[in-house]
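Form P-L/3: holo structure prediction, ligand iron/sulfur cluster.
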Amino acid sequence: MSNINNLLEMAVEREPLSREQAYELYDNAPLQALCSVADAIRRSVVEDPNVVTWQIDRNVNITNVCKSGCKFCNFHCKPHESEKAYITTMAEYRQKIDEALKLGADQLLLQGGLHPRLGIDFYETLFRQIKHEYPTLKLNALGAPEVAHIAAVSKLTTMEVLTRLKAAGLDTLPGAGAEILAADVRKRISPAKPSEREWIVVMHEAHKLGIPTTATMMYGHVEHPHQRIDHLISIRDLQSLKPETSRGFTAFIPWVFCPAGTELEREGIAPRFSATEYLRIIAMSRIILHNIRNIQASWLTVGREVAEMALHSGANDMGSIMIEENVVSSAGASTRFDKEAMKATIRRAGFTPRLRDQLYNYREE
Ligand code: SF4
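OUTPUT (holo model):
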């Protein structure tokens, strides 16, 4: 136990843990001690320890056509499935954005599949048109796999794609598509998706261009538990390489694999969710990621009660009410929040809710 206590003290002092030290804490520290240390770190790094932030944005899917075919994804359809395939039209964007603005949104989360025919020209035109019609709306769009895919379709480098997307109106890059940053895991769950190396390269390039990003982890499928810790260390190490002037990763968001109806479920990958394991992950995220300020509780995948507990285990943010979400919901995540439910949940956990923007600045409602 004394070694565990030493490691917990190192964590409180925000000293970087080695891989072996992190494994030791993850495997053997009592949950209550882990959460209490993570909570102490949260209190020391956030602007106001009594506040938990939340956001209003709208998730719009650009297209559901995807050539990747990840085995955990029920959302996509294959390029030849023409009866299901769609590309969202400008008229549909207008209707969805107008609804979102009425509800107080300041941001659009734009994500979609890896459409084999949509290259840089399509995305530049789309972003420019949205920004032209809604100049104050922030675009949190695509993700590292989409950027790598657009580069391949358009015969450009990922740096060129990011540069052009930024010029066309991209404000921030979501951290989606990280899953677990390990080649053997990706080979099992998403063999046709851009690799973990490409995810890391694109994120680093975004940071060099001054595009803030988030980082995510989807766990609880085929990975070894230590690969979750390896994932956190990869994110921490990448953040340490960002230029001084860049925000880099503004937040880390771990979520649990939702198996319902997925190919992985058909292959016999059973749900492995446990609330205590999720809280361990949140606490370890706060402890290992000493250079990332915000840790988000994923109410969508773990539900309201567990998300509340996460706020006492290192998380300081509840994410967005997400006016529309189709990807995780199509694999069984069923929790839904409106503004009042979000604020009530944060209050019930003992905190003051504050609305925020994508860069974690407070907003007035
Ligand atoms: S998770 Fe994304 S990349 Fe994978 S199949 Fe679904 S839409 Fe395509």
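COMMENT: The longest helix spans residues 31-45.
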